[in-house]
Amino acid sequence: MEFAGQVALVTGGSRGIGRAIAVKLAEEGCDIALNYRSAIAEAEQVAEQIAKLGRKVELFQGDIADPEVPQTVVSGVRSSFGRIDVLVNNAGITRDELLVNQGLADIEDVLRTNLVGPMLTVQAAAPAMLRQRYGRIVNLSSSAASKPGRGQSNYAAAKGGLESFTKAMAVELASRNILVNAVAPGVINTDMTDTIRAHGEDEIMSRLLLKKYAEPETIADAVAYLASPRNTYTTGEVLHVDGGLKMA
């Protein structure tokens, strides 16, 4: 129970990787503030699962792409829990299409959700962590940041920016014992990657050294280490958990 007494905010926590991260942190003793955009039934199921573990859990609805939501959510977390020790920026979307066919909305929506939203959420959460002189921030990137597929220009740009932002925040926050890292998953068995796997499985498998997809729990394990008190010396890093995809 290394997270006992701590509070984690997980964005996009109603399904997939976000759900696995929230449950993993709860299993390790963390109380959970769960942000979700619209999947209320799924969010309530996650909250019920966490509550059964004996942890306090609160739901915070809001679209991280809305610039007013990050501050509203973080304020709600501090009001409900009194502190925030861990921030996991997991909320993300895809709008895959060749750039010549992308509309401006496809570009802006992906950038707002996957890059600007996490930036504003860190901006909102950092003051509380600075006062505590402790914090762990983990941003969910993607193998697409370094090895994008066709039609991923908007997504790759957003995640590449997120990795650079991660390193910049590591520099800014290190003096107050706030460690900032990113995890870059490959192709994971989630609803979000259904289309990718369905339309390009042969190509993906040819690039995967381990010749299999990972489950969300694999990513949750990596996030839990970087977010834990055990991590005392890793900051500004991007941990690739991609089955060797980036090697191809």
From TrEMBL:
Residues of the Ketoreductase domain: 6-177
Recorded GO MF terms: oxidoreductase activity
SMART domains: PKS_KR
Keyword annotations: Oxidoreductase
Coiled-coil zones: none
Pfam families, alphabetized: adh_short_C2
UniProt-listed Gene3D superfamilies: NAD(P)-binding Rossmann-like Domain
UniProt xrefs under PROSITE patterns: ADH_SHORT
InterPro entries, alphabetized: KR_dom, NAD(P)-bd_dom_sf, Sc_DH/Rdtase_CS, SDR, SDR_fam
GO biological process: monocarboxylic acid metabolic process
SUPFAM superfamilies xref list: NAD(P)-binding Rossmann-fold domains
UniProt record similarity statement: Belongs to the short-chain dehydrogenases/reductases (SDR) family.
NCBIfam families documented for this protein: PRK12826.1-2 (NF009466)
Name of this protein: 3-oxoacyl-ACP reductase
Originating species: Streptomyces noursei
